[in-house]
Amino acid sequence: MDRGSRFCAGPAALIAVAFLAGCAPPPEPGDPLPGLARSELDRFERGRREFDRVFTPETGLGPLFNAASCSACHAAPASGGAGSIVEIHATAFAPGTGCDPLLDAGGPVYQLGVTPALRNALGIDAEPIPDRATGTATRTTPDLFGFGLLDAVPDGVILALADPDDRDGDGISGRINRFVDGRLGRFGRKAFLPTLAEFNEGAFPIEQGITTPRNPREETIAGAPVPEGVDPVPDPEIDALAVDLTDAFVRFLAPPEPLPLTRKGRKGRGIFDEIGCASCHVPVLRTGDHPVRALRNRRVAAYTDLLVHDMGEDLADICLGDAAPSEFRTEPLMGLRLAERFLHDGRAFSIGEAIRMHGGEAAASRDRFERLPDADRAALLEFLESL
To answer: Is the pTM of this model over 0.90?
Structure first.
């Protein structure tokens, strides 16, 4: 056995390095990015354990929560993937005055689970939504594969794709959504959160009721103080190292490798461009300079522009930041073949059904899809099912 073959037979954690050496298959869902340093692979594996860690009320869970671990939501087909848990979001929107995320009343995420102590104290089974909410929404759990690469795309790349006034006249007017401090948003179904670190750390208090050093206080119960004695674990309930390791796991997850295209699939890729899908689902983005070599100057087959677009009133639900109820971020299509439900709320059960539900700026492409000959439509769907 030569040196290369001994290396290829090493631990699974070395698959990323082995891939670069030419002796390992492309990453599977849940595998690390190719090209990570050994120290980064170590943080990735330690972060996976944090991601899979199951909390209980005695270790800090709740008193409000949606899940007891990160992987309870992100499990299929591996840790970091999609999941079956559906969340409830609510906001208040008034044209002319903008979006109220209902932060003073528990919003915008309303947890569906409560600990026994909170149930005994208040007699509730979920966090109540305030009467002043003008819209509620369901949200399915996205997979997180390749999110570190999306985080590494420079703001300037996204800004260059924006065309809020549709100056080129193509009917597509993608806009930037911005966080409360004005930073460019890119994460979440409304592209509200600016960075992956904030997206990851925010999930601990919002989804699990776990306080962190940067989020050290328990959430209110629909705006009211948390009753005394229902959450006795001292704050913060996890330390900065646990947060940082969890972030490393998500940041270093490799995007799913597309399936090889048949001749029919290659034809479908061309049709994807021809009917205008690529105007929003931009096939390739590039990362910029980055301290992690595996994230630096990388080509990302993300199929998104990370902008928000008007998708029509039939899909409208809540506002968030500058995004109106009918505006949503272009969903990345990398890993589309792994999905079982589609669109932001999972209402579509097939890719074709999801396309037919597109409206607003996507209506013209949707209509072109409907007019395709059956063979061309089948070719397009085969291409999409390869991603």
So the answer is: yes
Q: Are 152 and 160 in contact (CB under 8 A)?
A: no
CA angle 223, 313, 98 (to 5 degrees): 40
State the CB neighbour count (10 A cutoff) for residue 320: 27
Per the listing, tokens 């006034």 go with 165
Please name the residue that has the structure tokens 């930041």. 321
Give Rg (Cα) of the chain.
22
Give the residues across from 92 on adjacent strands: 100
300 beta partners? 285
Tokens coding 155: 């703001």
- Region 279-287: mean pLDDT is 98
Average pLDDT over residues 5-13: 38
Helix, strand, coil fractions of the chain, as percent rounded to 5: 35, 15, 50
Q: Kindly report which listed range (116-125, 214-223, 274-283) carries the lowest average pLDDT score.
A: 214-223
**Strand ranges (E), the chain:** 64-65, 83-94, 98-100, 109-110, 113-114, 135-141, 285-286, 299-300, 308-310, 327-329
Q: What is the DSSP letter of 187?
A: B
**C-beta separation of 16 from 294 below 8 A:** yes
* Coil, helix or strand at residue 205: helix
Phi, psi (deg, nearest 5) at residue 321: 60, -130
pLDDT the model gives residue 219: 79
Q: How confident is the model over 172-218, as pLDDT tens digits?
A: 999 999 999 999 999 999 999 999 999 999 999 999 999 999 999 88
